[in-house]
Amino acid sequence: MIVMENYNLYGSGSVNYILNSFSSDMFDGITFVMQPVVGGIDYLRYMHKAYLFQKEINTISNFNFETRELIIDALTDIVIGKTLNEDLENDLKNKLSELDEISETFKNLEHLTQGVDQQQLHHILRLSLIKLNGRISSIRDEINITMWNKGEDIDQLLVLDQIFYLIQEIIKDVLNEPINKLFDSTSHNVLIFSLLYIEAFHRNKVTFEDVQDYLSELNLIGYNENQNQNLKNNSIFEVLAI
């Protein structure tokens, strides 16, 4: 069980104010990536399969603010001192197994998801990512409004906005993938790691310099992916003699 003594809201700076204001959206977003069926519950209702998942999803939805924050606080420990190249998936499974509040629920959802066919799972994954993208857009809107306030820490706001922007670019790329490649482990890990890293900064577990370094790492990933796409395009051009 997670224990956090003297729990209260984190710092009072502009970044903390925004992340405090959107704490439910961040929790939902992280949940959508870790367990996409949570974001696809409306579709499951339409397919008359919601009853299979409803109990577990209700458990997550009914967490109070303190429980949600305690869960995210525990999960953020995974990214401290780590890079994207390390084994996030195993670390995440190990950490989840320690959390009495959510471990059984996530285990049951994972088991139930195995009974969903590929076409339906494809649609659920898309819906979850679209919902995540919407929540990030709302946060970015608030960041852009806050930047106009006198005395704000523009550097931190710009870096936070850029990380959210790159997360949205990853979402866009994933949504354009064919069904058999949708949401591969690399994209999955980058999205979870990025959201948790933002929350680690929110909790003063990593420094602003760490966040800047992470932004550089994210930019490099995007650059490498663009390079790979350019290589693919060049190969196509060669085949077509263009």
Characterization of this structure:
By secondary structure, the protein is mainly α. Helix content is 71%, strand content 0%. The protein has 11 helices and no strands. It has helices spanning 14-21, 23-34, 41-46, 50-61, 65-76, 88-98, 103-113, 118-146, 154-175, 185-202, 208-239. Helix 2 runs antiparallel to helix 10 (185-202) and helix 10 runs antiparallel to helix 11. The radius of gyration is 19 Å and the shape is globular. Mean pLDDT is 83; it is low at 1-9 and 227-242.
Helix count from the secondary structure assignment: 11
Give the overall form. Answer: globular
Backbone structural class: mainly alpha
* Weakly predicted, low-confidence segments: 1-9, 227-242
What is the H/E order?
HHHHHHHHHHH
Please give the structural blueprint.
Layout: H1 14-21, H2 23-34, H3 41-46, H4 50-61, H5 65-76, H6 88-98, H7 103-113, H8 118-146, H9 154-175, H10 185-202, H11 208-239
Helix pairs in contact: 1-8, 2-8, 2-10, 4-7, 5-10, 8-9, 9-10, 9-11, 10-11
Outline:
The protein contains eleven helices and no strands. The chain has 242 residues and is mainly α.
Keywords, please?
242 residues, 71% helix, globular, disordered N terminus
